[in-house]
Amino acid sequence: MLSIKNLSVHYGGIHALRGISLDVPAGKIVTLIGANGAGKSTTLNAIIGLVKADSGSVSWNGQDIYGGQTKAIVESGIVLVPEGRRVFPNLSVDENLTLGAYARNDRAEIEADRERVFGLFPRLKERHKQKAGTFSGGEQQMLAVGRALMSKPKVLMMDEPSLGLAPIFVGMIFDIIRQINSIGVTVLLVEQNAKVALSVADTGYVMETGTISFSGSGQELLADDRVRRAYLGES
Amino acid sequence: MDFQTFLQQFVNALSLGSLYALIAIGYTMVYGILRLINFAHGDIFMVGGYLAFYGVSTFLMPWWMAVIVAIALTTVFGVGLERVAYRPLRDSPRISIMISAIGASFLLENLAIVLFNARPKAFPVPEFFARNFILGGVHIASVSLIIPLVTAVILAALLWIVHRTRVGMAMRAVSTDIEAARLMAIDVNRIVSITFAIGSALAAIGGILWALKYPRLEPLMGIMPGLKCFIAAVIGGIGSIGGAVLGGLLLGVIELMTVAFMPELTGYKDAFAFVLLIVVLLVKPTGLLGKNLGEKV
């Protein structure tokens, strides 16, 4: 279980996280929804160590990882697919995937995982020698997910995977998220597209201006009036 | 001008251009990774030359051993410089790290005046490098042939490292997106150190070859070549290794050929690099082989 307690982050004068707490139980899909600037991405960046927190703790299976180096956190199995995908545009698909497995040494298994990723995204296999920069947004998202899978994640954190994607790719990415979860990978998902996110999530947390205002199961939140009004665009 | 003179000048230009290329690679690699212009690079080049000199003349090493020791020590020195002067400022505004680089450069130059003495020293050139060939009526010092050869071998090795090895892949990743590279569990500090190690080793090799060609060492000898090689890197397209080599060769050829064709301009020799820089920046601001790398945020 990934457990976040009282996490607080200041970002250049802005109090981006005001002591949030949330639990991501092993094997589940948890989603953080909320408006732009609510602190969802900051939460993920603080967990992975890209942003330093002022206080609070992050623990993974009972072990404190707060304040650790990103490298060590990724090696422990917590992996982030960042917002905007951030694939390496000047590197080929193959190289991007190899970099995903940078921390690993088990060559044979890396190759097996590469084949698994290609099984999941046949499109990547067709174009494995091509530079990632020539890909469409949806294809880059596939590559970003594939690259993350190459690091053998135990917890896969995804920041706005549907952002800027054509609807067909949105459905596809969420199918993949379910599949990844079904093989035992815990998922922490940050999304503005609350409807899709809540429909796949076991638990959802609603964030507002650096705090968690309420939480519940995905289905509960989908039915919740506050959520419907604020995030699903219903009246 | 006859063909012989042309050939003579061309051989000289090729070896000078290769030297420029070697040093320019260091600028371009560090810039590619950190978006930092390492103003102290020319002084690292000077340190390389002096270390080889002291190895031979004070510690009486055979020249090949002095060369190896000098390259190794210069490499350590360059990596250390990054640790002390640049790493602590990595997250500060870009201007701070640039000022630190300028400061490091001044410090090294003046430290060299204190430690090595401002009086120029004669670099002991082994017989092997000083030998002269006459080829089709052209006088060629063997060092003029060795320099392009060494450069070609180093360039091939470097391209292999950058494009075929794990470390090279990590270097390319860090140079495009440091944060995304961190997310791949890449140890960014280690990659930066490796980059400085390679750049400094090349500067040392450049400094030693320079001293073999122009056997006169002085503490400020790194300033002009450093500036010119920075220009070479910009002309070729900063961040691109191929560009640095192209820029270096181009600069060497233009510099020597202009002097050969128009001897009356000899006094302006050092100005050519800057004229070329202005022209290239006006016509193609990203340099000949450069891509727009964008600002790092």
Give the structure's gist in a few sentences:
With 235 residues, chain A is α/β, with parallel strands linked by helices. In chain A, 38% of the residues lie in helices and 27% in strands.
Query: Which percent range fits the helix content of chain A?
Result: 25-40%
Give the amount of beta strand of chain B, in percent: under 5%
Shape of chain A: globular
Question: Segments of chain B where pLDDT lies below 50 for 5+ residues?
Answer: none
Computed CA radius of gyration of chain A, to the nearest angstrom: 17 Å
List the helices and strands of chain B in order: HHHHEHEEHHHHEHHH
Share of helical residues of chain B: over 70%
Number of strands of chain B: 4
Give the overall pLDDT of chain A as a whole number: 92
Oligomeric description of these chains = heterodimer
Write down the Rg of chain B: 19 Å
Beta-strand share of residues of chain A: 25-35%
First and last CA, distance of chain A:
36 Å
Summarize the helices and strands and which ones pair or pack.
The complex is a heterodimer of chains A (235) and B (297).
Chain A: E1 2-11, E2 14-24, E3 29-34, H1 40-48, E4 55-60, E5 63-64, H2 70-75, E6 78-81, H3 93-100, H4 107-120, H5 122-126, H6 137-149, E7 155-159, H7 167-182, E8 186-191, H8 194-200, E9 203-208, E10 211-217, H9 218-223, H10 225-230
Parallel strand pairs in A: 3-8, 3-9, 6-7, 7-8
Antiparallel strand pairs in A: 1-2, 1-4, 4-5, 9-10
Helix pairs in contact in A: 3-6
Chain B: H1 3-34, H2 41-57, H3 63-86, H4 94-116, E1 121-122, H5 127-130, E2 132-135, E3 138-141, H6 142-164, H7 166-176, H8 178-183, H9 188-213, E4 216-217, H10 223-236, H11 241-261, H12 271-283
Antiparallel strand pairs in B: 1-4, 2-3
